[in-house]
Amino acid sequence: MGDQSNSIWNSACDDLSYDIDTFMTTSTSSLDHLIPEIQAFGSTFHPRFGVRNKDSSLVNVSESMSETQFNKTNAILHKSESMSSHFNRNGCRVEDRVKRILNTITKYANGTSKGTNQELTSCVLQSFYDIASIIEQGSTVCDPDILTMCIRRFNGSKLFLLLTSEKKMLLFPLIAILRSSKLLSNTDLLEQVLVLLRQLVQLHDAKQVTERMFEICPDVIIVLVSRINMHRKQVQLAVYAVLNYIYRSFGPGPHTEPALQRNQSINESIMSGIGDSLNASIDDIDLMSVAIGAMEGLVNIMQEKMTDIVITILDCMKRHSHHEIIQHKALGVFLRVIYNNGFTAEVFVSLGMVPTIYKTMQLHQQNEGIQMKGCGLLKHLAIDEDIRRTFMTQETVQVIVQAMRSFNTSCEVQRSAIATLWVLTSDTIQFFAHIVCKESLDDIHVSVFRAMETNLQDEFVQKHGISVLKHLARNKELKSALISAPYHILNAMNAHQFNVLLQSQAIQALNIVSTRASFKYKLLEQGAYQYVVGAMIQFPQEELLQIRGCFALRSFMHSRKSLRTTLDILEQEPEGLSGVVKLLNATMENHRKIKWVQQGAICVLDQLIRRHSNILTVVDIAGFSIIEAMSTHIDDIGLQRAGCNLLMNLTSNVSTFLEAPDQEAIAA
Amino acid sequence: MTDGIASHGGYTSSTIEKLVEQGTVDAILKAIRTHKQDVVLERSACAALWNLSANYYIADQLVEYNAHHELVDMMPRVACKDLRNMTIAVLQNLALGNSKVLIEYGVLKVVTLEMAKNPLNAELQLLGCGLVANLCANSGRETVRGIVDQVRIGAVAAIKNHPTTIQQYGNMAIDKIAKFLH
């Protein structure tokens, strides 16, 4: 800068500074001449960042500037900022300000300005904030076209990628724009805003972004969904994508629930909006896959009946049966609907959902998600016995077994499939055996064995596997095929010793499986007695487990051969007979009021005294408990019978059972 | 007669006494009283009473607990032949030291009636004669005089229809009465 120009520049600065001071103190000066001057000034040195920081790179633009000039410039910029605030307060000259801000964003987004990344991003964010403040104040001066252009520039710019944690700060202006109905009549602008929002959610930690969104605008979901029914694919895609991200990261909770549940009419309009949108785009695979994905999250918190939407999605599944993503997401929506919306299985079945599920599971045998969700959905549909009987066929079992075969190492698929088998086999075994052929029954237990073996550490698989085996064991024909069942049940008991529910169910299953004399012997050989007694000692207060334990022990000793084996095992145990009698006595004392515990224990004691030498131990340890049980449950005929029978044997000196000829041995 | 019923060996008397101390008799009698229509229960209970009554001292206790009331009540009511026979068997044991109480309660009358009603039930006749003999053997002259007709009814039924072994018991009963009457 030359001396003359320096002098002119200094003088201009002084004048401008004086004018601003006057305006700020008296507010009587005309603004008309002041604004262009400041704008001109600002175009040379950016009003906020251009010269304030002496170390910044932008200062290099005016390297030749003297110290005095620099100070003066800074002072003027300060003043102009104060004036700008004044403008804002008084609603004056907003147009100019908006233009300036938009120009700033465009300029920086284009990368034409110099500066550090931090300066640039701060500047842009500040500018967006300014815009948002203006929009929030209800100003109508913001030109949607310029705003659209501005955001579009920004969307594709390097600058956006430079934003890191500041990205969240963009939410405020974006939501402000979204809430402005006037601005959003411009579809281009809406599209750009939503694309930017989607990028934000995608690139940044979605949960943090979502939380911030709800802080800024609790109605954000309503705002988003209300924009959905636009005839522009990009808009719809963006809305669904944003919704999808919100639900995936956030799910139902204190933020989302009030947003959608507080107003039924709003909810209904949202649902109808989505329904229309889905109907209009049913053949558009891209849109439908994103939309159905978003629905999966939305149905989480919507309480309204969604029959129309379910029908549309089902229709979509049928039309695009080969499209894996649609099939997968649609099954997800149905699962959510059945969980959260009080949708009954009856409605689903009446809509013809079951054949569609079979078809998709058969077509996409290698898709883990489809297999898992398909099985899960079938389980829910099959819970009600009457409904189950309307659709259960050979095919039902086949698709489930196929899923288990295809993903024998996938814990999720195994869980889902085995839970479904558990529900299906809970029907009366006559019905089940009538519907399902012998080969399929074999397939079931083979699949269950495999699942239990592969997922030994998974409590859910083990628990439900045991239950399925228990159900299957009710079929006399099948029981002989379940010879390996005790091995798997005992393995499960060993792996989950502290899971009371599993232990209880396993003991019950052992009891049911061990009805055949040959099984009893095998069970005892494998250590069933020790496992049952171990569980009873481990959980002394668990009524059900104690009942099942007592009856299982009785069952083990029910044949002559197995009784002898049990008594031999007892003799080898450290505490021997007195150990088990003490356990039974403790059980009877702990559950004095529970007649089944008393009866079960009495029955076991009755078996134990079949070896004559055991009588004295039983009388010494458990005699009082036996009499107490009979007195407490005087009205219970089963217990009285068992008690009298035990007393009869206790008072007898002939151990008839063991000493009578062994009919089995004779027959053999 | 039935599985699980003791022969009268007097074995494990200490065990049985322990059981009785713990309240076994009361528990059995309560069960019988509460479930009068249940034959399975009555059978087990009666068998237990029979086992207990083999012990002389416990038999006295059973009479103290009025076990004979339940047995007398049960005898004509039950349709099960085995059970009816067993009640008489228990009474036979009880009669050894408590014949007066039993006769006063009308045991003899009921038993002889049963014998008359079931002339072809050999086991009942046998046990009935045994019971009559026990009652007579342990009663005073006056008591026996009062029951002559009843004994005759029972003994005659037994002698008429059954082989020598039972006839012997019947004759034995008549002999015992005759001793008192002479």
What is the count of structural domains of chain B? 1
- Fraction of helical residues of chain A: over 70%
Task: List the secondary-structure elements of chain B in sequence, H or E.
Answer: HHHHHHHHHH
Work out the helix count of chain B: 10
Distance between the termini of chain A: 121 Å
Distance between the termini of chain B: 37 Å
| Highest CATH level, the class of the domain at 344-496 in chain A | Mainly Alpha
Q: Can you say what the CATH homologous superfamily of chain B is?
A: Leucine-rich Repeat Variant
In round numbers, the mean pLDDT of chain A is 74
The description of the largest β-sheet of chain A is:
none
Mind describing the biggest β-sheet of chain B? none
Number of strands of chain A: 0
Could you say which structural class the secondary elements and strand pairing of chain A correspond to?
mainly alpha
Please give the oligomerization state of what you see: heterodimer
Question: Compute the gyration radius of chain A: what is it?
Answer: 39 Å
Brief synopsis:
The complex is a heterodimer of chains A (668) and B (182). Chain A is mostly helical. Chain A has helices at residues 3-26, 34-44, 67-90, 94-110, 117-136, 144-156, 158-162, 171-179, 181-184, 187-203, 206-216, 220-226, 233-250, 256-261, 264-280, 285-298, 307-319, 324-340, 345-350, 353-363, 368-382, 385-391, 394-406, 411-425, 429-435, 438-454, 459-472, 476-479, 485-495, 500-513, 517-525, 528-538, 543-556, 560-572, 576-590, 595-608, 615-632, 637-650, 656-659, 663-667.
Structure description:
The complex is a heterodimer of chains A (668) and B (182). Chain A is mainly α and 668 residues long. Among the domains of chain A are: 1-92, no CATH class; 344-496, Leucine-rich Repeat Variant; 523-668. Chain A is built from 40 helices and no strands. Chain A has helices at 3-26, 34-44, 67-90, 94-110, 117-136, 144-156, 158-162, 171-179, 181-184, 187-203, 206-216, 220-226, 233-250, 256-261, 264-280, 285-298, 307-319, 324-340, 345-350, 353-363, 368-382, 385-391, 394-406, 411-425, 429-435, 438-454, 459-472, 476-479, 485-495, 500-513, 517-525, 528-538, 543-556, 560-572, 576-590, 595-608, 615-632, 637-650, 656-659, 663-667. In chain A, helix 4 packs antiparallel against helix 5, helix 15 runs parallel beside helix 17 (307-319) and helix 16 packs parallel to helix 18. Chain A is elongated and about 125 Å long. Chain B is an all-alpha fold. Chain B has one domain: Leucine-rich Repeat Variant, CATH 1.25.10.10. Chain B is 80% helix and 0% strand. Chain B has helices at residues 13-21, 24-34, 39-53, 56-64, 67-77, 81-105, 107-117, 122-137, 141-161, 164-181. In chain B, helix 5 (67-77) packs across helix 6 and helix 9 runs antiparallel to helix 10 (164-181). The A-B interface holds A 615-616, 619-620, 623-624, 626-627, 630-631, 634-635, 637, 640-641, 643-645, 647-654, 656-657, 660 and B 3-7, 9, 11-12, 15-16, 18-19, 22-24, 26-28, 30-31, 34-35, 38, 40-41, 44-45, 47-48, 51-52.
